[in-house]
Amino acid sequence: MRNWILLCVGGVALATVAACNTGTTRKLPILGSRDAVTKVVDGKTITDTLYHRIPDFELLNQDSVLITNTAFESGVYIANFFFTHCPSICPTMQRNLLKVYQHYRGDKRVKFLSHSIDFRHDQPSVLKRYAEKLGVTDDRWQFVTGSKADVYHLADSYMVYTKEDSSIPGGYDHSGYLLLVDSHRHIRGAYDGTNDEQVQLLLDELDVLLKEYE
Amino acid sequence: MRNTWLYAGASLFSAYLVFQSCQDERTIRTAQYAVNGQKLYHLHCQNCHGAKGEGLGALYPSLRDSLSLRARHSELPCLIRNGFAEMPPNPQLTPVEIAYVLTYLTNSFGNRMGLYSLEGVETALADCR
Q1: Which pTM value belongs to this model?
Q2: Sequence-ordered alpha helix ranges (H) in chain A
Q3: Is residue B5 part of a domain?
Q4: ipTM field
Q5: A28, A105, B47, B98: which sits with the fewest CB atoms below 10 Å from its CB?
Q6: Residue B79's CB: how many other CB atoms inside 10 A?
């Protein structure tokens, strides 16, 4: 008899804990490789995890202004790679990113960073015209260009495939991922920018990420 | 006298049937062209002009504008073959494929302009600028 009571009490306690757990806020993972570092702090040896992080960058935007990673420190941003005369996946990807941009109209916490991988043709003036025609009206969405080495190296750190390939229509091959990046430059989500369901997932998870800053 | 009326009625009715079947043939051909055109649209046009012909901002024009499609109706085959401004040329498309894709887009997204015939495409392509 006593065992039964114990079992019941235990069961109720477990159920309560489980119920509380479902109420806790969901957190997005940090994507990419990670390293463990051991260091000595105040005489104690501690082990810490080093997460994958987007390195410092310095690129020219559509207004011919040099912008750095500090421009995106105040909130979260969504990054992608494209080029203005891309005939394949870019228009679809940019159309979807434009939906996200319009959904968060005027929200200073959410920024956008489109890197051009056509370092020859996409000068700032070309990017400016593209941005205006796309319907980008404020500086929350930056279009940037840089040297091939800089941009393609950055693409690697965003885990996006980019390659110059003359056999491809447009001359450049790349993947159409949208990367959700937090204020510590950790990648918190990767979504196929040409897939409507994935773009909806991005909208949902962007809200989850923004809760961390409330 | 009665028979004359009967014959007249019968011949009018058969004339109507012939007319109707021609109409039906044109409707069927329009549907066939549009179905073939949908696949080609998906392959060659949709990335820029969108799945619903909505275009993209001011970058790529919407195809929902029946007025401008009508105004440039005879230029459309040349636009597809040779490209225009940002739009890349499509030399790989044959005249009948251009007729397919034009029939599709001039009868979708709220447009209803009927068949874009192969003859119409060939005539237009003959004097592209």
Answers
A1: 0.80
A2: 2-23, 90-103, 124-134, 148-157, 196-211
A3: no
A4: 0.74
A5: A105
A6: 18
* N residues, chain A: 214
Cα distance between residue A13 and residue A9, in whole Å: 6
Each residue's pLDDT tens digit, A119-134: 999 999 999 999 999 9
Q: Give the span between the Cα atoms of B58 and B64, in whole angstroms.
A: 14
CB-based contact B47 A98, cutoff 8 Å = no
Q: Which amino acid is at A104?
A: Y
Determine whether the interchain pair A91/B58 forms a contact, defined as Cβ–Cβ distance below 8 Å. Answer: no
Number of domains chain B contains? 1
CATH number at residue B65: 1.10.760.10
Q: Does B85 touch chain A (CB under 8 A)?
A: no
Note whether residue B113 is domain-resident.
yes
Q: In this structure, are residues A116 and A127 in contact, taking their beta carbons and an 8 Å threshold?
A: yes
**Is residue B10 situated within a structural domain?**
no
State the residue range of the domain holding B101: 25-126
Residue B59 within a domain: yes
Residue A87 neighbours by CB distance under 10 Å: 16
